[in-house]
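Figure 2 data, in text form.
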Amino acid sequence: MFFDIGAGEMIGLAILGLILVGPERLPKLASEAAAIVRKIQRMSHAATQELRENLGPGFENLQPSDLNPKTFIKKQLADALDEKDETPRHAVKIDPDLL
């Protein structure tokens, strides 16, 4: 589930919410929390779109997880190796003097 929370933990959090907030204010609090989560998602999407536009060509498929330095380097190396593998064998010429 979300944040690796199981069904039992969700039920426990709901009961805790009922005790702390009260049953009359809980629905309003839940809807406000959902609105905040939607706003954060929209802001994240807008930031990702802006980053894609500012980085220019080659970053059209950028995902937020790609911004992790390890993931970014792995992806760039994989792309570079794929491009290297696509070169035709007959196009590579070896200088006989180097042998």
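Caption note: Residues 2-98 form one domain.
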